[in-house]
Design goal:
By secondary structure, the chain is an alpha+beta fold. It has one domain: START domain (Alpha-D-Glucose-1,6-Bisphosphate, Chain A, domain 4), CATH 3.30.530.20. Helices cover 27% and strands 44% of the residues. It has a seven-stranded antiparallel sheet, covered by helices on one side. It is globular and about 40 Å long. The N and C termini lie far apart (33 Å). InterPro entries: START-like_dom_sf. This is Polyketide cyclase.
Length: 147
């Protein structure tokens, strides 16, 4: 399975502050570069990420293709949290969000392990580039919001 790992230095912020920002559900649509719509009775303004939580959302790929995701929060600690897709447009998707103190701020790292439903050919043709674009944009948005 492909693994995408991307790290960004967020200057002047503690790991606790960065992780807390990520755990607030209201920040998810602010970070994500494409439109996301919560499904069911979830209000992102009232959503706090916690271990064991499950929720669904629609992600509008390229702004026009709807993809419905159901995710579970597998772990939450003071240095990371992990979400995993239960149902959605991928064969597999596991996302680790990590924070670490470094000189001058916090190193924020996304590590995503995924597999496309179409396998390696589809990953090579489209999914790998799409994932890089989405996560680079997420990091730009985090810097804009926290920097």
């Amino acid at each position: 399975m492909p693994v995408l790992e991307l790290s960004t230095l967020i200057k002047g912020r503690t790991p606790a502050h960065v992780l807390d920002f990520c755990l607030e559900g209201s920040n998810f649509p602010k970070i994500f570069p494409e439109r996301v719509t919560p499904l069911g009775n979830i209000d992102v303004n009232d959503l706090r990420i916690a271990a064991g939580r499950e929720f669904s959302f629609r992600h509008w790929m390229f702004g026009v293709i709807p993809a419905t995701w159901t995710v579970a929060i597998r772990e939450v600690s003071d240095s990371h949290f992990i979400d995993e897709m239960l149902k959605g447009p991928m064969a597999a998707f596991r996302h680790e969000h990590r924070v670490a103190a470094v000189e001058g701020g916090t190193l924020y790292t996304d590590r995503v392990t995924y597999a496309a439903i179409g396998g390696a050919p589809l990953e090579w043709l489209m999914v790998n580039a799409y994932m890089r674009r989405i996560f680079k944009a997420r990091h730009r948005n985090m810097l804009r919001l926290l920097g």
